C-alpha cells in the first residue's frame, strides 16, 4: 500500500566535495509538508560509536499511558534531555529533561547548522526489537508551537518510517531510516501529516532514534 519514496531531488550544498556525499540533502516533494533527509550524515564508524554510547549511557525509562483506567506500557523505552525549563507533556506523560550530555551536544551541534534552529530538547526512543514501535501521531503538542522544526537522528537497525496526510489519503509515503541518517521535518508537516514506526515480525536489532525539538518556554 505504501510506496517507497522515489521523489527525491538533490539539494544544493556549499560544503567541500569530500564531505558532500554525507551532507547532500534529498528533499521530498510532499503536499503541505517539508521533509529533508540526509541518509548518511554520520558515517558508519561514528554511528557505531554513538549507538554504543547512547545505548549504554542513556537513562532509559519505561513509561506507560493510562487508557480507560488501565496503565499500558509504551512499546519502546524513552528518555528526555534538554535545557532546564523545557518540560514537555507527551502522551499525557510529563517529562522533565535531564541535563545535556556531551554526546547529545555533539550530535546536536552536527545537525543544527543544517536545521537553522537551536534545539533546546531531545526525546530519545529505544526500539528494542520488532515488537517496539510508535503508532500514528503528529508532533503537534502546544509546547512546540506552529511550524515547529524536528530533527530526527537514527542509529542501529533500519526501521520503516511511514507518513500519511491527514486528509489526502493517496499521498501516503514511507522511507527507511538507516544507521546514521538525519531526517528534518519542518513547515506545516506536523499540521498536515502523521507518522509512525510500525512494529514488524521480521527479526530486527535495536534502534535508537533522537528527535531534537524546540520547546517554547515561558521565560
Ligand atoms: O523513531 C522515529 O523515527 C520516530 C519517533 C517519533 O516519531 C517521536 O518520537 O515522536
Ligand atoms: Fe513523532
Automatic annotation (TrEMBL):
<dbReference type="GO" id="GO:0051213">
    <property type="term" value="F:dioxygenase activity"/>
</dbReference>
<dbReference type="InterPro" id="IPR027450">
    <property type="entry name" value="AlkB-like"/>
</dbReference>
<dbReference type="InterPro" id="IPR032854">
    <property type="entry name" value="ALKBH3"/>
</dbReference>
<keyword id="KW-0223">Dioxygenase</keyword>
<protein>
    <submittedName>
        <fullName>Alpha-ketoglutarate-dependent dioxygenase AlkB</fullName>
    </submittedName>
</protein>
<dbReference type="InterPro" id="IPR005123">
    <property type="entry name" value="Oxoglu/Fe-dep_dioxygenase_dom"/>
</dbReference>
<dbReference type="Pfam" id="PF13532">
    <property type="entry name" value="2OG-FeII_Oxy_2"/>
</dbReference>
<feature type="domain" description="Fe2OG dioxygenase">
    <location>
        <begin position="118"/>
        <end position="216"/>
    </location>
</feature>
<dbReference type="InterPro" id="IPR037151">
    <property type="entry name" value="AlkB-like_sf"/>
</dbReference>
<keyword id="KW-0560">Oxidoreductase</keyword>
Amino acid at each position: 500500500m505504501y510506496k517507497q519514496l522515489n521523489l527525491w531531488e538533490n539539494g544544493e550544498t556549499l560544503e567541500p566535495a569530500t564531505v558532500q556525499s554525507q551532507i547532500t540533502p534529498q528533499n521530498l516533494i510532499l503536499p503541505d509538508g517539508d521533509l529533508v533527509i540526509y541518509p548518511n550524515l554520520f558515517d558508519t564508524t561514528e554511528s557505531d560509536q554513538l549507538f554504543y554510547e547512547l545505548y549504554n549511557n542513556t537513562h532509559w525509562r519505561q513509561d506507560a499511558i493510562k487508557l480507560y483506567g488501565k496503565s499500558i506500557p509504551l512499546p519502546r523505552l524513552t528518555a528526555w534531555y534538554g535545557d532546564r525549563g523545557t518540560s514537555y507533556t507527551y502522551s499525557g506523560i510529563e517529562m522533565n529533561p535531564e541535563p545535556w550530555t556531551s554526546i547529545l551536544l555533539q550530535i546536536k551541534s552536527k545537525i543544527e547548522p543544517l536545521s537553522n534552529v537551536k534545539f533546546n530538547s531531545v526525546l530519545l526512543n529505544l526500539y528494542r526489537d520488532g515488537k517496539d514501535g510508535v503508532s500514528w501521531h503528529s508532533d503537534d503538542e502546544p509546547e512546540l508551537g506552529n511550524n515547529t522544526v524536528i530533527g530526527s537522528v537514527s542509529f542501529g537497525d533500519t526501521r520503516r518510517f511511514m507518513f500519511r496526510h491527514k486528509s489526502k489519503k493517496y499521498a501516503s509515503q514511507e522511507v527507511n531510516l538507516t544507521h546514521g541518517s538525519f531526517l528534518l521535518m519542518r513547515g506545516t508537516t506536523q499540521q498536515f501529516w502523521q507518522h509512525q514506526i510500525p512494529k514488524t515480525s521480521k527479526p530486527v536489532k535495536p534502534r535508537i532514534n533522537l528527535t531534537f525539538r524546540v520547546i517554547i518556554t515561558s521565560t
